[in-house]
Amino acid sequence: MKDTVIQIKDLSKSFGDMDVLKNVNLDLYRGENLVVLGKSGSGKSVLIKIMVGLLTQDSGSAIVLGKEVSQLNQRSLNELRLKIGFSFQASALYDSMTVRENLEFPLVRNVKNLSKGEKDRLVEEVLEGVGLIQAINQMPSELSGGQRKRIGIARTLILKPAIMLYDEPTAGLDPITCMDINNLINQVNEEYKTTSIIITHDLTCAKVTGDRMAVLLDGHFGNTGKFEEVFEHAVDGRVKSFYDYNFIEQ
Ligand SMILES: Nc1ncnc2c1ncn2[C@@H]1O[C@H](COP(=O)(O)OP(=O)(O)OP(=O)(O)O)[C@@H](O)[C@H]1O
C-alpha cells in the first residue's frame, strides 16, 4: 500500500463570499514529485499555506506527516515546519551574507550544539549536492539567477526535510537553466528521498519533474494523473488550452 505523506480531505476555504477551495481532495505519496497546476488566483498558495498552518481551512482536513495541521499548537507546528522545506520563487538569500553564511543560517537557528566541524561538513555536503561548492565564499550578488536558485534549494535541504515545496522553481530563468533546475529537483528527490510538491506554470518543468499532475480548476482537483493522461488527452477545454499555449519539448 502507498504511504501517504499529505492527505487533504474535503477541504474548503473561503474569503468573504469568495470560495477559493471547494471540497479539495488530494493525496501526496511518499517519494513522489507531485506537480500542482492552476491559473493565477486558483488557490494553489492558499492550499500550501493551509498545509503548513499559515492559514486554517473552514472545513475538511489537512493531514501532514500524520498530523492534522489545524489542531497543532505553535510548538508542534514549528516542529512540523522544520520537516518541510520551502523553495520560494525569489530564492530569498541574504544579500549581505556569503553563500556559506546563508547555508549556516538555518543550522544556527534550528540545530543545537553543532560543532564548527559538523556545520562545515553539512554546508559542504549540500553545496556538493547542488554542484556549487566553488561558490562557498561568494556573495549572492556575484551569482546568476540559476545559481542563486540552487543555493536557495541547498539552504532548504540542509535541514534534511521530508517534504519539499517548490513554488514556481523555473520562473524567470532561461530554458537551459530551467532544465538544470528541473534535473536538480529530480536529483534531490532521488538523493535526499524527499517527497515534493512543485507549483508551476511551466509545462516542461511539469513534464520533466512530475510523477503526477494535479490541476486546480474551479476550486478543486478535477484532473490528476500522469502528464499524458492529464494533458495530452485533456477533455476540459481550459486544460487543453493550457497545454496548447505552452512549449513542450517532444
Ligand atoms: N489572506 C487572504 N485574504 C483574502 N483573500 C485571499 C487571501 N489569500 C489569498 N486570497 C485570495 O484567494 C485567491 C487564491 O489565491 P492564491 O494566492 O492561492 O492563488 P494562486 O493560485 O497561488 O495564484 P498565483 O499562481 O498567481 O500565485 C485569490 O483570489 C486571492 O486574492
From TrEMBL:
It comes from the Bacteria. One of its GO terms (molecular function) is ATP binding. It holds the Pfam family ABC_tran. InterPro entries: AAA+_ATPase, ABC_transporter-like_ATP-bd, ABC_transporter-like_CS, P-loop_NTPase. SMART domains: AAA. Residues 6-243 form the ABC transporter domain. This is Methionine ABC transporter ATP-binding protein. It comes from Cyclobacterium amurskyense.
